[in-house]
Amino acid sequence: MTNAIRSNVLRRYCLRAAAACAALACVAAAPPPPDLDPPAKGTKVLIVTGIDYPGHPWRETAPRLKELLEKDARLGVRIVEDPEALASPKLALWDVVIIHFQDWEKPGPGPEARANLTRFVEGGKGLVLTHFACGAWDGEWPEFKKLAGRVWDPKLRGHDPHGTFTVRIADSAHPITKGLSSFETLDELYTCLAGDAPIHVVADAVSKVDNKVYPMAFVLPYGKGRVFHSVLGHDARAYNEAVGALMRRGCAWAAGIEPK
Ligand SMILES: [Zn+2]
Predict the structure, then answer these.
(1) What separation in Å is there between the alpha carbon of 132 and the centre of ligand 1?
(2) 36 is a domain residue
(3) Is the separation of the CB atoms in 251 and 228 below 8 Å?
(4) How far apart are CA 190 and CA 112, in angstroms?
(5) 22, 60, 65, 177: which is deepest, by most CB within 10 A?
(6) Do 223 and 170 sit in the same domain of this protein?
(7) 117 Cα–ligand 1 center, Å
């Protein structure tokens, strides 16, 4: 073997070894959590989305929800399209997290994200859940049932056929629903919630299928934090002005500021 051939063989070997190392590094290192710098001022609201059941157009509903929330000029809203963002240490810089995802056919955000979210709410921040967020973690994280108050139970009937129904204000004295009127909406009336955490229902609806009353929006405490959970919001049309007002006021309440 001449020196030239030997050095060529060595070079090729080194390149292959370097490529193998790079591939291993890719497998071993988790991607860094997305940058989560909050807005400079105001109440900082983070919508966490990026995956949902195929019938749920999160690319349309998340911006629509943001637009409706920002009608309260105190709320600075940002959307992050990766549920693993919940693992970021920067989560602590926010005031409210909105769960707007359902980890359909894949595991939900992992142990770091779960612990971080639990600490966030337990420590006194706000949590908001919308529509199929009640199905997040798909039963794989028991504590989520306590955080969310009620979760999707696949053994129960899912919802009434998509259509119009009346959302009734169940407690007109609560800061979230004070001054709001019952309203018509075009959505899915969820009938699939299970759980026994003590919740306080602020809005409900009567099913056209079984005539039973189901919660559409409710609140609960978690540690020092506040949780506002609404199952409304199937698609962009479902985020009408009345639903917007409910979400906006629920979000402000969860942040510990007066709903407007
Ligand atoms: Zn839906």
Answers:
(1) 6
(2) no
(3) yes
(4) 30
(5) 65
(6) yes
(7) 24
For the stretch 153-184, what's the b/e string if a residue is b when 16 or more beta carbons lie within 10 angstroms of its beta carbon?
beeeeebbeeeebebbbbbeebebbeebeebe
Give me ligand 1 centre to Cα 154, in Å: 14
**Distance between Cα 133 and ligand 1 center (Å):** 10
DSSP string, 30-52: PPPPPP-PPPSSSEEEEEE-S--
Ligand 1 centroid – CA 95 distance (Å):
27
Q: What's the CA-to-centroid distance between 36 and ligand 1, angstroms?
A: 28
Q: How much is the pTM? A: 0.88
d(CA 188, ligand 1 centre) in Å: 6
Per the domain annotation, does 260 fall within a domain? no
CATH code of 171's domain: 3.40.50.880
Torsion of CA 240, 243, 247, 252, to 10 degrees: 100
Span from the CA of 28 to the centroid of ligand 1 (angstroms) = 36
Task: Give me ligand 1 centre to Cα 204, in Å.
Answer: 17
Please tell me whether residues 135 and 77 are part of one structural domain: yes
Domain that holds residue 25: 1-30
Cα of 192 from ligand 1 centre, angstroms: 12
Task: Tell me how far apart the 2 most distant CA atoms of the chain are, in Å.
Answer: 90
Please report, in tens digits, the pLDDT of each residue of the chain (260 residues total): 445 444 554 455 444 544 444 444 444 456 666 789 999 999 999 999 999 999 999 999 999 999 999 999 999 999 999 999 999 999 999 999 999 999 988 899 999 999 999 999 999 999 999 999 999 999 999 999 999 999 999 999 999 999 999 999 999 999 999 999 999 999 999 999 999 999 999 999 999 999 999 999 999 999 999 999 999 999 999 999 999 999 999 999 999 999 99
